[in-house]
Structures are given as structure tokens and as C-alpha cells.
Amino acid sequence: xxxxxxxxxxxxxxxxxxxxxxxxxxxxxxxxxxxxxxxxxxxxxxxxxxxxxxxxxxxxxxxxxxxxxxxxxxxxxxxxxxxxxxxxxxxxxxxxxxxxx
Length: 101
Prior knowledge:
Layout: H1 2-7, H2 9-12, E1 16-21, H3 28-40, E2 45-52, H4 55-68, E3 79-82, H5 94-100
Parallel strand pairs: 1-2, 2-3
């Protein structure tokens, strides 16, 4: 991420970095990206949209996300939802609809 922001002109103009993926219950990668951005690109914000496939995992991820939302560089619109990533294979799935909105 640092490489892209610091060396690619087109990424310097982006203020919101959208993260979509399987962040895991502890949101370790989001924590890491947030710390890196704080040190190098304080004007950037991370918008998280994560999928977690279990109810327990989603609850843990939401608790961790609420802590991360206290940081200035995590968008308040960030969310984690309970979906299986494989649902994205079906273009008519609710998971695809969630990504588009």
C-alpha cells in the first residue's frame, strides 16, 4: 500500500481507500493498514467492507471494528457483514447486492 501511494501518481489523488475482503475476526490487516497510513499518508481514509462467514466471527469483527472506528483514518461507513465469500460467484446473490450499495 505504501508503495502505491508514494510512487504512483494516480493513487496520490485518492482520499478514500476501499478495502473489500475477508479481514478475519481480529481485523489485523485493517489495523496494520491504518497504522501505516497514519505514519505516511495522514490525509487518507480506509473504508472497510468485510465478509465474515460465521455469527461468532462477525460479532468479534464488529467489536474490533468499533475500536478501529475511533481512529481518524477509518471511515465511519465501514462495516463487516455475515456472508460466505463464495456467494460472490452468483451475480444475483444478496452478497453482490451488498457490495454494490
